[in-house]
Amino acid sequence: MDFSDFISQCAGKWFSQRTSHAIPPQALEAGTCDFWIDLIEPGDAILLERCQAIGLDPAQVTCAIRTHWQGQVGTANHADSGATFSLFVASDSPKQGQFWRWSEDNSDSSVIQGHYHLGQDEALNLSASTDSLRSEERLWFLNPNLRERTSVITHKAGSRYASFCSEIRMGLK
Fold this sequence. Notes:
Blueprint: H1 3-10, E1 12-23, E2 29-39, H2 45-54, E3 63-73, E4 78-90, E5 96-103, E6 111-118, E7 124-129, E8 133-143, E9 146-155, E10 160-171
């Protein structure tokens, strides 16, 4: 599987169950959400705008996606929703490169830049850093409609947060 195939396989509507906790262990949090991953066409206006914002030639973009979600998180089971826009640019190898991710929350216009690598085991590894944190995420498919995801976020102050998600495809839209 190449990187574009992996991203294409991510498209659709998904149901996610997440378990997460702080390290050292604190109260366990669990949550569920529905989320959608939409593939972005090369000439899309938002894609062109985002490329211009970071000084990137749109012809270099390998692929772009929009992810949006709504669900219940935490011990209080409060509602949460949001959206992100991500674009990917391959480096010398088609299985690795850089990515940029924007929150589509109007109060947060920051962009996160990171690196991706699709391993021989067909798991996608994403890593990114900001001034305040570092994130490591790993995604893989058990079958075309079942995806697993782990992540560890390390804050500069030293605290860490880990999560595991099991994600089931509910359809293509």
